[in-house]
Each structure stands twice: as structure tokens, then as C-alpha cells.
């Protein structure tokens, strides 16, 4: 019984560890890609576009939007990767990525690709900062990083992409909230 | 037993799930983070006794300890703090001051400056960094407390240095400055820090004045090249101008440079100046080789350094390898120093000589 539970524990761990990395695929240029096509019945392309742009501004305001036209949006962003467990967890590096969203009537597609890892190092003030000039495409990272570390970064990249896509879908399903003008109650003192 | 195992499974599953959530978190405050390092070393000076007077790695023919360094940091919104404590010779009497001025002070001066209450044998808080910081805007930051100095290329923490032994410029410059500073970022290519600091370097408490001015202009002229133009000046110690720069020329080759000049005040004359070059090349994902070539000279006057006597010079060449195995870095190092006159070093027979050489093997674990 004991062996069964311990085995179960290891299997669960291995499954969870692999799950996030498996979300990434390779594209025709042999680059990691997270690609999704999502149907949005009843919604025209221009509404989807408006919601997509609103998503980037609201959910990922530091995204650098390079191209934004009627067909889609292209941009760049980054997220932090962490190592260690619990309180020993701290920034290990950042992953820069390229994003693409395209809109059509009743559907949109998006992909995140061009993942480039920059390791962090400790500075004199006790903070972790990017190691200048070290930019490692995740596809070639096995020659520069330990396999265990790379697996961790790929897991985090997969998890980030999934969350990014899930969040985009939530924004796509509802129109951007319009700020309502709250009527200000005013007291007129010249008539009484 | 079954219950315990079930509980273990449940806790493990929960922690994995929690971990998965953490990794995809994109907003919110950073968690409390604990970081640090541990280091130990063996040194052998080829004369049979310690000779080279720069900081740390100074115990000869001994497997010795550096320090355990523990740093805590936390950010909430625009506010953050860093508190970093160190225990061990490197992080105590070899680098930081006595915290209790009521206890007997044993003077172990650097040069001829007796830091208030420095030396072996007294109480210390062992602080490396202790400061609070606030981002007024994305571009404007205010920081106050006891901080690693902004001067120079090398630092106390062995995890943040490439070479294990230290340079003359590092040893004779400030280690920490307590004060208040403001930093404004003009663009990705330029920022300026200006601050007011305690009268003496490396003290928790001022000698009665907060009258040292410090500034740092940070420039990034091209991608992957950053230069820091620094000045620290005050009537209690003196004025140091410093240039620290590093250029990651390719993904494998980095070139660093530190140049500084110091003029003493407060009754002393003279000072020092020097330049150190740090080429480093990564030969594999685990091994990086580096050289430090340093020329250091003292001016004639009454100010003494941890180095050659006034009016003399020394050249140091240090060949270092960093061999990484996960969080552990092995650092074998060979160093040869050569002075302009037979006044600094002694040979195996105790006679004055113009050169000294040593081998160090250090291990640094960073987390």
C-alpha cells in the first residue's frame, strides 16, 4: 500500500511537471509556438478586434504593440520565470515573446512565439536583474542551460501561454466595460 | 500510516497546484523572498604565509570560511525593502563595522583610517544591505538606509563577483554607504542617482554629520554596454571619482573595466588611483574563464592604503575560472602581484621582495 501511494505521488508529480511544457509546439521554422483558433459565434471581426486591443491594454499594459491594423495586432511582451520552492523562490530570468492576434467574423486566432530567455543575476543591492547581453532562444537553450532549469522555464512558458490565452478568451466573450458617468448630485443654493 | 500517506498525497497535490498557479501569476505583489549564499575556500600563498593585502581570502594554508549571507526582500505596490545579514569573517569583521560603540574598539584600519569601532571581537549587526525603497513613479525612485556602495566593480558578496580574491581598488574604496538617494531614469539609455550619505564610509552611524555627497550617472551607449560614472565626496574621508563599465560584446565574451582616483582629506594628504580590466569568456555552459589585470598606485602623502606605501605601485594579474554545477560555483584562481619596490611582500625567508603569488580554490553556493 505504501509503495502504491509513493508511486502515485511520483506519477502525479511527473504528470504535472510535464503538462505545462507539452502545451508548446514547434512551428514550420522550428520555433516554439503556442497557437490557438477560437470560434466566437455571432461576433463580427471589428468587435473582436476592439476587445483584443482592450485586452492588451488592460491585462498586459506593458505589452509593446508593434502593428495594429484591421486584420490583427502584433506585439512583444515578457514575463518572469522563477526557480526554487516556497520562500526560496525568486526571479531566475525573463522570457521575451512575440504575440500575434488575427480577427475574422465569428473567430479569432492567436499565437505566441519567439521565446527568448535572459537569465537574472544578483546585484550589489540584493536584487535580481537581467544579465546584460545574454539572450537565449528557448529552442537552442539546451546548449546554454542545464536541462533541469530549461524544463522548468519551458513549463513556466507553457503555463504562461495558457493563462494568456484563457484571459484573452474571457475578454473576447464580453464587450469592454464602458465607464458610466455617475450623476453628481448638486445642491442649487440660489433657489429655495 | 495510511492516513498519513493520504494526507501527504493531498498536501503534495495542493502544493503542486499552488505552484502551477504561482508560475502563471502575472500581476500582484511579489512574495517575500529569501536569497543568499555560502562560501568556503582554501588558499596557499607560494611564500608559505599570507602576503597579498586585499580583502577576504586571506587565511593561508587553511580551509577557511567566507560567510553565510541571508537576504530578505519584499515588494508591495510601489514600496519595497531589502534586509541582508551575513555571518562569518567575510561578512563580519573583515568588511563591516562594529554595531555597538560602547564596546572596546580594536582598530584594524584600512590604510590609516580607523573606522569607528571596527575590528575583531565586538558586537555587530552583520548588515550588508538594509534599506527601504519607494517608486514615486515608474521613473523616479527614493531609497534610504544602509546600502552596498555604488562605487566600483567588485562587491562583498562572493556570489556577485567573478574573481574570489578582490582588487586593490575594491579594498581601498567604500564597501557600504548609509544615506538617502534619489534615482531618476531619463530613458533606457540614461539615469541619474544623487544622494546624501553619512560622513564616513562603512558605518551604521555617522560620526555626527551627514555630509557626504554621492552621485552616479548610468549610461547605456549601445545595447549590452553599460557605464557608471560615480563620485563620492565628503570632508571626513575624501573624494573618489570612479568609472565602472561592462560590455557583453558577444554572448560568450564580456569585458569589464574599473578606473578610480581618490584624494584624501581630513588631515591626510595623498590617495590612490588605479585601473582594472576584466575580460571573461564562457568556454562552455558550465565553465567561464576570466582574467583581472589591475594597476594600482598610491600618491605621495600621509594617507596609507591596503597596498603599496605612498608613491609606489603594484600590478596584479589574477586568472580565475568559474565552474558551475547548478547553484554551486567552484572557483580556482591563481594570482601574481608585482610591486614597484621591495616594500610590500616577503618571501619564504621573510625577506622583502617585489612579488607575491597565491592559489585559491573557493566554492560558492548561491540560492
How is the topology of this model organized?
The complex is a heterodimer of chains A (192) and B (367).
Chain A: H1 2-19, E1 25-26, E2 32-39, H2 45-59, E3 64-68, E4 72-83, E5 90-104, E6 107-122, E7 128-130, E8 136-137, H3 147-173
Antiparallel strand pairs in A: 1-2, 2-6, 3-4, 4-5, 5-6, 6-7, 6-8
Chain B: H1 2-23, E1 33-45, E2 62-76, E3 79-87, E4 127-135, E5 140-148, H2 168-172, E6 176-187, E7 190-197, E8 212-222, E9 225-234, E10 238-248, E11 253-264, E12 271-282, E13 287-298, E14 313-325, E15 328-339, E16 345-346, E17 352-353, E18 355-366
Antiparallel strand pairs in B: 1-2, 1-18, 2-3, 3-4, 4-5, 5-6, 6-7, 7-8, 8-9, 9-10, 10-11, 11-12, 12-13, 13-14, 14-15, 15-18, 16-17
Describe the structure.
- The complex is a heterodimer of chains A (about 190) and B (about 375).
- The longest helix of chain A is centred in the C-terminal third of the chain and has 27 residues, at about 145-175.
- Chain A has about 190 residues and is an alpha+beta fold.
- Helices cover about 30% and strands about 35% of the residues of chain A.
- In chain A, strands 1, 2, 3, 4, 5, 6, 7 and 8 form an 8-stranded antiparallel β-sheet that branches.
- In chain A, about 25% of the residues are buried.
- Chain A has one domain: Alpha-D-Glucose-1,6-Bisphosphate, Chain A, domain 4.
- The model of chain B is unreliable at about 5-25 (pLDDT under 50).
- Chain B has a single domain, classed as Porin (Beta Barrel), CATH 2.40.160.10.
- With about 375 residues, chain B is mainly β.
- Chain B contains 2 helices and 18 strands.
- At the A-B interface, α1, β4 and α3 of A face α1, β1, β4 and β10 of B.
